[in-house]
Amino acid sequence: MYALPRWCVRASFADMTLVRSISTLSLVFILYFSTSGGAFSTETLVASVGPGMALGILVLVPMFYSIPEILIVGELASMLPLEGGYYRWVQRAFGPFWAFQNGWLTWMYSLVDMAIYPKLFVTYLAWFAPHLPPWGVWVVGLVVIWGATAINLAGAARVGRSSIFAGTFIIAGFVAISIAALAHATHVPWRPFSAPGHAGAGGLAVGLSIALWNYIGWDNASTVQGEVKDATRSYPRALAITLPLVAAGYLVPLLATLSATDWTTWTEGGWPAIALASGGVLGPLFAAWVALAGMVSALALFNALLLAYSRIPFVMATDGLLPAALARTDARGTPRVAVLSAAVCYSVFVLLPFGGLVVADVLLYSLALMLELGSLLALRVREPALRGAFRIPLGTGAVAVLALLPFSVLVLVVVLSFADGEYGLPAVTGAAVAIALGPLCYAFARRHARDAGVTDPA
Hints:
This protein has 458 residues and is mostly helical. 70% of the residues lie in helices and 0% in strands. It contains 16 helices and no strands.
């Protein structure tokens, strides 16, 4: 059995003071914005592959990807409800080297992830201000980043409360649009099944890629478990609530609006136009509501993910692998330096074009998730008595089969996407560079720890 070295435990408790301020309801909405944020981007899915295929994929992906991952993440989170979440799970199962690789891969794909949300904010801002100059887009992006940073610096409880308000506003908007659209329904929403030219593997690749982005990230919020009330029970409960909320948040608006509009007019960022077309006399009001909701969603997504991602350098610093300043917390239990450092990194990377690296992001996430899924299997074999409030009612062999389902979906998406010459080569190159840097950075981090007088007696 691998146990944390004494220097790790000493750093973990001497340099940080965490406050358990996140309730189950707050965690539900933090998870909601770690994976979804509303029906935004589903219009792109419909426009790309057609109504029937889009709806089918949005039903199948949670069955074969989300449910298995949620069960495994739920058991791990209940078993080891520690700050750092998946980083600590991998550390307990496989040791510090692989834990560092897991954290490194997470940080690498977060640089791509976090560049998306300020641009998404601008997409919906265009409904109100359609002619922003390039410098205006950049300024708005920085406002989103540092607005979310200000909320994070106010503490995890503030992030949770703001996520509840944002999620309620977004969900209410899509419910209102759905009710209005049903009053103007004229046809079944799932015909035609596929868009012209997207009936084969190419359509499946596009559809799975987009749908996966809408269901990925159930492990993200585990990194703040040291700040969750009754964490061993709260995380599994929150997962069980959030998945149906997310799935319904996609399917209900799509079923209603597809039955009342011409799907061939749908475009990326087109939810305000869809609301306008399906809302009747209230269309202009609903269009403004959903455009504002898109902006709120982008900010809330960045806000929740900054909370989650900033805890990775924080816990690495408590292990002596990053500068000690990153492990300091303020009176609210907030790792201010870690949050600010993450915000600075994202402010730089938001200026760079990442379109060709989205597949690399999926590949890096796949590798990180593989380590996490493997952690449960290793811990069940090595430490059978290690249990939390929730445990999958299956044997270890059956859990291994369960773990293969989400990983197989990720591998399928990556393989199909690599067939696209436009994105395949940049993806492979970007992912290969990131993976190769991981062991080098670990060696450098270990040297930094030794120079700082932090040694691993093991």
